[in-house]
Each structure stands twice: as C-alpha cells, then as structure tokens.
Amino acid sequence: MNYKKLLILSLMLCIGLAGKAQEFLSAKFTIEDYKKGVQEVELTYNTFIIGISPKGEIAFIEPLKRSRPNQWDDFEDNPVRGLKNLGNLKVTYYDNFDKIKAGKIKSIDGIAFDYYGTFDMHDPKGSLKSIGKMAINYNNVFDMREPKGTFKSIGDISIKYNNVFDRGEIQESLKSIGPVQITWYKEDEEKHGKIRSIRGNTQALYVTKAKYHNNNNLK
C-alpha cells in the first residue's frame, strides 16, 4: 500500500471516529408519578454525561474521567469568555454578541452545542436545539394535539403523548419514548395518575421512574 492510499484511509478513519464522538452512547429518560412529560434526560457520551431539564436547559455535566486527581470544577451556566476546563473536559462558551446564547456552552471536547434563538419564532428561546449532529425538537403551535413546549424528539428518538385519539387515556400523559411503552393507572381513584408500567427498555435507551414526586398535576 503506497503512502497516498494510507493517508486517505487514515483520514477516513479519523472522520469516522469524529462522527462517532458526536453520538451519545446511551439515553436515560426519567419520568414521574402524577407528572406530565419527561422530567430529565441523561445522555452519555464518550467523555461526559449531560443532564437536560424539561425546559431544554442543561441540568448538569459530569466528566467521565479525571486527567489528574482533584481537577474537577464546578459548573454554572453563566457568561464565561473563551476556554474553560470542566474536569478534564475542554469547554467553550458563547460570548455576549448573542443575547439569548450568551454564556451558554458552545462546545465540549469539540462537540458543538446550539440553542433556539430569535429566528426560531415558534420554539422555546434559549433551549437546547442540538448537540453535535443530534437535533432536539419540542412540540410547538404546529403540534396542535400535543402539549406545547414538551420534548418531541431527541435525535431519532421520538416522544409520543396520549391525545384526543387515545380515548380512555390520561390526556397529555406520556405514551412512548422511542420503542419504550408507558401506561398509567386510570380507573383506580387512589392510583389515578401513577405510572403503571414501563416496557421495552434496552441498555442504549431506557426509561426510569423517579422515586419521589412533589405534587399531583396529572388530571
């Protein structure tokens, strides 16, 4: 094999590895009794875990490895210019030229982050729009039968809710997350609004029930 072919193969391998680094390895969705929608999304990448709140905000970032002992830094989503370390992660932030994105994370270890801005008229401003190549979509005014502002899809994982066509179901309660099916107690007055079953979990995508709830808002 000559040098030119070896160089091409090396470039192809690097591109392939870079593409893989942009994809999450597993996705965990937390749901809760008496609560509508997803309460937290946890995505695991090669070098970090990121938590996303129901409003599409970054809840936490946890590095998976330490490059040196005691190199962990606290995380706060406030305006920070330039480059900063978060543990062993290289993190950049948006500057003050974009008021909606200012101070938000722009990249982690080369994986780009984007947020809905002023030109996204029908979507929640400041919420995560994409991580790497993965798009994050929310139900908006065009999704007339779905609860506005809730997660619609994360990457190729679609999120469905019970609506007027699902007769006998609790309206706007979660129906499925990808292949995972969710059912709720309906007839039992004492348990009405509690999660009845979660079926179809895999190692790569799983839905879990939160241990505690604060109030009853699934009517």
Q: Give the strand content.
A: 35-45%
Main sheet overview: 11 strands, antiparallel
Number of helices: 1
Return residue spans where pLDDT drops below 50 for at least 5 consecutive residues.
6-19, 67-72, 78-82
Instruction: Kindly report how far apart the N and C termini lie.
Output: 68 Å
Oligomer: single chain
The sequence of SSEs as H and E is HEEEEEEEEEEEEEEEE
Q: Count every beta strand, where a strand is a DSSP E run of 2 or more residues.
A: 16
The total number of structural domains is 1
Structural class: mainly beta
Which descriptor suits the 3D outline? Answer: globular
Task: Describe this entry's structure for a reader.
The strands form two sheets. An eleven-stranded antiparallel sheet has the order 5-6-7-8-9-10-11-12-13-14-15, with no helix packed on it. Strands 4-3-2-1-16 form a five-stranded mixed sheet, with no helix packed on it. The radius of gyration is 20 Å and the shape is globular. The protein has one domain. With 219 residues, the chain is mainly beta. β5 (83-86) and β6 form a beta hairpin. The protein starts with a helix and ends in a 10-residue tail after the last strand. The chain has one helix and 16 strands.
